[in-house]
Write a structure and sequence with these properties.
By secondary structure, the protein is of the alpha/beta class. It has helices spanning 20-34, 66-69, 77-94, 109-113, 132-140, 152-155, 198-207, 221-227, 244-252, 269-276, 289-292, 308-322, 327-338, 340-356, 358-361; strands spanning 2-6, 38-43, 54-57, 101-104, 122-126, 145-149, 166-167, 186-189, 212-215, 236-238, 256-259, 281-284, 298-301. Helix content is 38%, strand content 15%. Helix 13 (327-338) packs parallel to helix 14 (340-356). The protein is globular and about 65 Å long. The termini are close together.
Length: 372
Amino acid sequence: MRIAMLATSRHPVREPYAGGQESHTAVLAKGLRELGHHVRLYARAGTDPGLADEIVPYPDLPPLSAVAAVDPALPEPEFLRDHAAFLAAVRDLLARPDVDVVHNQSLHFLPLALSEVLPAPLVTTLHTPPFPWMELGIALAGPRAAYVCVSAASAADWTTLPRPPQVVPNGVSDDDGGPGPGGEDLVWVGRLTAVKGADLAIRAARAAGRRLALVGPVSDPEWYAHAVAPELGRDVEHHGHLAHADIARLVRASAATLVTPRWDEPFGLVAAESTVWGTPVVAIDRGGLREVVREGTGVLVDDRGASEAAVVTRLRDGVQQAVSLPRPEVRRRALAHLGADVMVERYLQVYRDLQARPEVKAHPVALSGVLS
């Protein structure tokens, strides 16, 4: 199968990944290629060239004239850059009738709005909760568009879709590193911003009497300066934004991973990766995390109606339960549900199901490729 994949235009798809969206795109592209499928990846310049058979870089913004640059209605630069990227990608796709399916990972409305003129049907993975621009794209999309959510919890939020989305959990590549030795310390991984709750993890680790390693980029410097930086010291260390292999080594050497969102996570990739690496998870039960942290892989903590002090206590108690879970069994259960190979096969079935729809077969520019 020949698959065109539209990555986000905000960040290159390369390690260390800017977020779960980029990581998911990389894992899926690599997994499809390993099965012999051809991947043409539209992505920001600087993307890892080994991820796809072809990399098509999104264009940079052209320089604005002196008059245009001072226009009071000038949109934000990122807004203009996104439009330039996806209009260029759609224009390129219009000249490629050999594409079997277009997979939109971008969360931009233009591929959806223009989906009916594309030479192949469009699959869009909805990585986030609904927002207005995306709902506009969905309203303009035709019947040759299909939608995937990363959890049933996230799917329930997308109420404006023309048909229920399919649910395909994000997958984690097995690096053959095994369950790891574990250790006494705890680890927390993510963007350092208030909604991710690293400050809750710090309090929980101290309540449990364990050291904590923080990993991730500082996304909100002001919040970090007053909520995290003053807490760093002998028992809390920030390791920065690490490469994926370095994160895996640190997680495998930890007793448990704390996942402490203050919002409803659409999925919970950190929890998925931790359990595939054999390290049990203690997570606040928000959004899709219930579908990731299953029996035998970790502990979920209920925060409904609870004060943050009560949540911290529950996280502390959860650590004591989680560290007793056998690491090989944590890994085995996680791979059966969340392995990259499982995800890739599910997406291939999504592509085949879309191709089988009568409205796709009847389209005048139906694809010329052969499903394999």
